[in-house]
Automatic annotation (TrEMBL):
CDD domains: PBP2_Arg_Lys_His
Record keywords: Signal
Keyword Nucleotide-binding attributed: no
Domain Solute-binding protein family 3/N-terminal intervals: 35-254
Family (UniProt): Belongs to the bacterial solute-binding protein 3 family.
Protein name (database record): Putative glutamine ABC transporter periplasmic protein
Domain Ionotropic glutamate receptor C-terminal: 35-253
Signal peptide: 1-20
Length: 255
């Protein structure tokens, strides 16, 4: 009888240890869920910006990368930094991907890889309401505000005789225009259009045609397999209609 009791007690202890072990493995698996560290500059509405009264971020890019991360089985962790710090952060492995309304350019493709384009933008000119500027040709010799490290800055520097003021954020460039420190702002069209519905509607207007169609892409470190994974997830979002729902939410119906 004692042997039977001892055997039963040993069996119970073994089962208990097995269950405890299984629970521990489950917890370990949960704790080690894949994390996708996503770098962005959260001052680029409507693509990425802080929610009102919160430290959390929102915008088209934010909701898109969260949907892509979910599709790929990742928990998305947003990391805020300056736009010009994103590529160095990728190459130093401080982040896994960067999404920040980043235009795919030949220069950038030399140092990072991009996904397929997820949005086609362009450049737009914003001036004060009392301005006589009608096109980029009228900006010769004038002062242009823009965001540093962007295609808006590149375009500004092609204007003959123009004085270019490059700021850390698009909002700072717009404020310079409002305060009379610049004759115009050149920046991404959807960002300027969104700004015009908010702070810019009382003092500014847009002029000229949208310039230079620009494909936005998600950047990853050179050689990273994440580019392929993201492309696959993006294709699935488009096929399911989820991408179109996000687009309509932030930009309205496609024209």
């Amino acid at each position: 009888m004692k042997k039977v009791l001892v055997f039963l007690m040993m069996a119970i202890m073994a089962c208990s240890m097995l269950l405890t072990g299984c629970g521990g493995e489950e917890k370990k698996a949960a704790d080690s869920a894949k994390v996708l560290r996503v770098g962005t500059e959260p001052v680029f509405a409507p693509f990425e910006f802080p929610k009102e009264g919160s430290k959390d971020l929102t915008g088209f890019d934010i909701e898109l990368i969260e949907a892509l991360g979910k599709k790929m089985g990742y928990k998305v962790e947003m990391v805020s930094m300056g736009f010009d710090a994103l590529i160095p952060a990728l190459n130093s492995n401080n982040i896994d991907v960067a999404i920040a309304g980043m235009t795919i350019t030949d220069e950038r493709k030399k140092v990072v890889d991009f996904t397929e384009s997820y949005y086609t933008s362009g450049l737009m000119i914003m001036v004060r309401k009392d301005s006589n500027v009608k096109s980029i040709d009228d900006l010769k010799g004038k002062t242009i505000a823009c965001q540093i490290g962007t295609t808006g800055e590149n375009k500004s520097r092609t204007v003959e005789g123009a004085k270019v003021k490059a700021f850390n954020t698009q909002d700072e460039a717009s404020l310079e225009l409002k305060n009379g420190g610049a004759d115009a702002v050149i920046g991404d069209a959807p960002v300027i259009e969104y700004y015009m519905t908010k702070a810019g509607k009382d003092f500014a207007k847009t002029v000229g045609e949208r310039m230079e169609a620009e494909p936005y892409g998600i950047a990853v470190k050179k050689g990273s397999k994440l580019a392929g994974d993201l492309n696959k997830a993006l294709a699935e979002l488009k096929k399911s209609g989820e991408y179109d729902k996000l687009y309509t939410k932030w930009f309205g119906e496609k024209k």
